[in-house]
Amino acid sequence: MFKKKTESNVDTTKDASSEDKDQPWAELGLTQDEYQLIREILNRRPTSSELAMYSVMWSEHCSYKSSKIYLRQFGQKVTDEMNKHLMVGMGENAGVVDIGEGLAVTFKVESHNHPSYIEPFQGAATGVGGIVRDILSMGARPVAVMDQLRFGAPEHPDTARVVHGVVDGISNYGNSLGLPNIGGETVFDARYQGNPLVNALAVGVLKHDDLKLAKATNPGDLVILFGARTGADGIGGVSVLASETFDDDGPSRRPAVQVGDPFAEKVLIEACMELYELDVISGIQDLGGAGISCATSELAANGDRGMEIQLRNVLLRDESLTPEEILMSESQERMMAIVNKRNLKKFEQIMNKWEVEYSILGKVLADEKLVIRWDEQEIVNVPPKTVAIDSPVYERSVEYPTWIDELNANSSESLPRETEPSEIAAQIIQIASSANQADKSWITSQYDRYVLGNTALSMPDDGGMIRVNEESGLGITMATDANGKYCQLDPYQGAKLALAEAYRNVAMTGARPRAVTNCLNFGSPENPEVMWQFKQATTGLADGCVEASIPVTGGNVSFYNQTGDVAIYPTPVVGVLGVIDDVARRIPSGWQDTGHNIYLLGTTKDELDGSAWAEVIHDHLGGKPPEVDFQKEMELADLIHGANIQGMVASAHDISEGGLAQALVESSLRFGNGARIWLGELMERDGIDLTAALFSESQARAIVSVGREDDVKFVGLCEARGVPIVRIGVTDLESSALEIQGIADIDLLELKSAHVRTLPELFS
Amino acid sequence: MPKIIVEIMPKQDLLDPQGKAVANALKRAGNSEIDATRIGKRIELHYKEQPTEEDLEKAKELAKDFLSNSVIEDVVDVYIEDQN
Amino acid sequence: MKIGVITYPGTLDDRDAQRAIKLAGATPVPLWHASDDLKGIDAVVLPGGFSYGDYLRCGAIAAQAPATKEVIKKAEKGLPILGICNGFQVLVEAHLLPGGLIRNEKQHFVCRDQRLRVENSDTRWTGMFSENEEITIPLKNGEGGYIADDETLKYLEDENLIAFRYLDVNPNGSMNEIAGLSNKQGNIVGLMPHPEHAVEPGFGPDTPIATRSGIDGLRFFQSVIGQVVG
To answer: Percentage of residues in chain A with pLDDT exceeding 70?
Structure first.
């Protein structure tokens, strides 16, 4: 059993100054050099509490020590034009973008990969909870969430465990918060078997004046912890410190995972909204990784101040927690506020109204020192910036992976191509029913897309669209994309392609792309070849952003996604935020009117390397990913925007994985309406064969449907703007088939059944 | 800590979807000897001091009126837990 | 006309219910669970969500709230009450409607555009529908399986108290395809699907005409306004 921690075995700063001892720095993940650096900073050995704080704050997860030198590009490769709408850039909890009408949007994606493999339900649930608190701490009301999920091979026995847990976790937590889930991605690949990726995105809206920063600037202001009580969540890592003072059976009780309580978070959101409305707080920070250690040191460091904390005041769920564990605990649904004394009453009233527990931990100090006491004993006394900001930065070794030459040389050119019409029709259906291209409603129907009443578009449309101003109709679109296979073939190009697709998806809904976030999922940074991939991908993304003239506002890095020597595909998830003046002008991704012309915009090249066709039909990955040209992407986006303002675009759907064939399938099935398609003119114009016409993944392309009355005008607009256009068909509500001339009439009910049943068959 | 334990089960004749799902999973895993499962609740009422018979009577009332819903659930037991 | 909307901690669709009331032409009045002051309202909506985290049982803790207790008192006097989703669960827990709601048969939360048949257009909240009219409104719940004993089911059927039944699919395993109920007086209606999410073109269910243009839910609110005023 536990021994109650007595005052005598607390490791104080006094002890640390007077007696040296061996400390478990290696077990806590610090290198010898890092431990030495801490001793130099403090001019003594750290106390066990200080050691715990430094070790977790200097971890890869919290400090970005391996990625920092590359992430700087996102702040450096910018133009004035790109920064025009940026209110808060890299480095805060989340970036903030002006969208007009005195409103701003904050958005961010974060990974919760490893916890979601260990305990999929809680891992995914707390991933949603964490990202929502990030958004909340910027002063915003969260308005929507999205998820980017990557699982192992669909047939692998362990995949179902992870899929069920993750989807249940997101469903349970997100639905209980009352946030619509408006889209996302689900990808299956054996490469993610032991390393599923669970990325969660949240979007929030705020008035310009309500912007909050994680800063403690005014000495004397109170430091208040509120929300859930602190328990032994996610402190497995520091049990090595506890074991110094506990019996053997003690630390084994400490769980490594966190458990979420969505009800507590919902109440926390509403309580924070009232705090913002009544202007009660001067700074706020959510508690995520590294808990109180992180919140206290960051608030103080960002405000160029210090802080004095009485750790005994922390409300505990488990009285046996040691000071080190309290500092490290990752208990969910907690926030830390900086409150001026004159606002304390108002603060307390709001907490009482929402039945939220709180305790005053201490106050802001003028001097830049973070002092933490346990009763009378001082257990931490450190300069906050050394913990939160000035962590070591590494330039890890980078090595070009020679295997990539062989991979690039193995192009899809050698793969056999069908010419038999019935076989080609079979390939269309085979791709449409493959796990990656199949309908995802088995997952998305477990999420609430209606709550808050402002969802203008959600899955399966190209992006999720939310109205943010009910009077004017002003809205935003979010889309996220990443193609790990493209990135495996060429991480530089792959990252650009992720940006291009997300950008295009946003544009297809009628919105103008405005800002970028990212979640960079990679293998171990200690592997020089992974570091090369990371360098290439970040450089590609930064270059792509300059070419598309759109800024990165923030992001997240997840390293160590690998089992043994095998890393995941480099997976830089890119999220693009768009703005639309009036969501009434939204564009759906499928046709609902009969007799509309269907146009293919853009040029189709023979680009099948890394495609869904190569994967599904031939189990092949090799060659080079499609070319990307942001000039063309911008021209396409501008065209759609211009034509949509004039009400000419009845539907628009971007062409990406699975090519034109998959886009036609999805646009037909969106509302279950048929069409007649002919490809002869396209093949002749672009000099391509039937396989390329249907399955090539060339970029900067889309299909649109346009009413007869707007036909001449629309074609004229495309020609004037130099966007290649070719008529490939006509919508036909009388027909119950996707009729592709010279190939087959694919019955829509059969197609739908093939497209929809894949996931239920795998996981129901 | 002195406790009164309240045990609640879904009514015998009503559908218990959780129980059904678990039973199916158990069968799939090869436990063919298990015929069915039902999933209920155990609620612990913690007291500062050892609960009295009076406390127990009150707990029984609470169990009936608030802690369970007599339309779908049965209170199967309410008892003072042995302190060992 | 003033229609109250009670907010409990964990309520989610309260602002949506308020918007629906406004679009229908009445004045929404926010009510707080902890107060028994119903502010002179003419009708009340218990909205959807996860009141008190749906801990213990869905709606069980909210059924004990001061505002709910006041609503229960006024129910006998004929106050029109609409319970949506979690609000339906509260009505059942408060014994204003019979039966119970349990976890969906398939164990998953389900969100879908749900077709329903209006079985009883003789209530305060369904007067503007025609008998047996088919409507589509969103459904989103994790514990929406309606259950009751045989005697109760027989009573509900015999007295025509089943207000709505699911069409096409039974999304949560409800007995007799029950989607919603009314009491005998017709002032209390509870249902799992969400009429307040089908009130505004552009933000409701898809229809064959246009994306998200379904507004079948609006008439729930118009019904109570029309009947109270008229």
So the answer is: 96
As a whole number, mean pLDDT of residues A140-163 equals 97
Residue A438 and residue A448: Cα distance in Å, rounded?
A: 21
List the single residue in A263, A446, A456 with the smallest CB-CB distance to C50.
A263
What's the rounded Cα separation, in Å, for the pair A425 and A661?
10
Task: For residue B64, list chain C residues with Cβ-Cβ distance below 8 A.
Answer: none
Q: What is the pLDDT of residue A234?
A: 77
pLDDT tens, chain C, 230 aa long:
999 999 999 999 999 999 999 999 999 999 999 999 999 999 999 999 999 999 889 999 999 999 999 999 999 999 999 999 999 999 999 999 999 999 999 889 999 999 999 999 999 999 999 999 999 999 999 999 999 999 999 999 999 999 999 999 999 999 999 999 999 999 999 999 999 999 999 999 999 889 999 999 999 999 999 865 44
Structure tokens at A324: 């080190």
CA nearest neighbour of A207 among A468, A452, A476: A468
Chains that touch B (3 or more CB pairs under 8 A): C
CATH number at residue C145: 3.40.50.880
pTM: 0.94
- What does the alpha-carbon distance between residue A378 and residue A110 come to, in Å, rounded to a whole number? 35
**Backbone φ and ψ of A521, nearest 5°:** -100, 120
Tokens of A463: 């992006």
Most A CBs within 10 Å, among C52, C109, C192, to test the A interface: C109
User: Is there a domain that residue A477 lies in?
Assistant: no
Ranges of each domain in chain B: 3-80
Q: How far apart are CA A593 and CA A708, in angstroms?
A: 11
Nearest to A447 among C10, C111, C210 (CB): C111
Asked if A335 contacts A287 with a C-beta cutoff of 8 angstroms, the reply is: yes
Residues 49-108 of C with CB under 8 A from B: 56-57, 60, 64, 92-93, 98-100, 102-105, 107
Nearest to A450 among C110, C138, C142 (CB): C138
Q: Which CATH architecture has domain B3-80?
A: 2-Layer Sandwich (3.30)
Please say whether the beta carbons of A142 and A200 come within 8 A: no
Q: A764 contacts in C (CB within 8 Å)?
A: 106
Active site residues per annotation of C: 85, 194, 196
Chain B interface mutation, best of C89, C93, C103, C110, highest count of B Cβ atoms under 10 Å: C103
**Which domain CATH number covers A742?**
3.90.650.10
Query: Does residue A178 sit at the C interface (CB-CB below 8 Å)?
Result: yes
- Rounded CA-CA distance C203/C194 in Å is 13
Q: Which of C56, C101, C104, C176 to mutate to test the interface with B (most CBs of B within 10 A)?
A: C56
Nearest residue of chain C to residue A356 (CA atoms): C9
A112-129: b or e for each residue (b if 16 or more CB lie within 10 Å)? bbbbbbebbbbbbbbbbb
The Cα A575–Cα A97 span in angstroms is 14
Chains A and B lie in contact, requiring 3 or more CB pairs less than 8 Å apart: no
- All residues of chain B having their beta carbon less than 8 Å from the beta carbon of residue C107 are 17-18, 21
Query: Is residue A100 in some structural domain?
Result: no
Domain that holds residue C69: 2-229
- Is residue A110 one of the residues assigned to a domain? no
Q: What is the pLDDT of residue C230?
A: 40
Minimum Cα–Cα distance from B15: chain C residue: C147
Q: What is the ipTM of this complex?
A: 0.96
Query: Does residue B25 carry a pLDDT above 80?
Result: no
Residue where a domain stops, chosen among A333, A360, A388: A388
Residue A240: the pLDDT is 56
Q: What DSSP state is assigned to residue A592?
A: -
- Quote the domain boundaries for residue A616: 588-764
Domain boundary among A340, A365, A388: A388
CA distances from A713 to A644, A647, A709, A724, C147 (A): 12, 11, 8, 15, 59
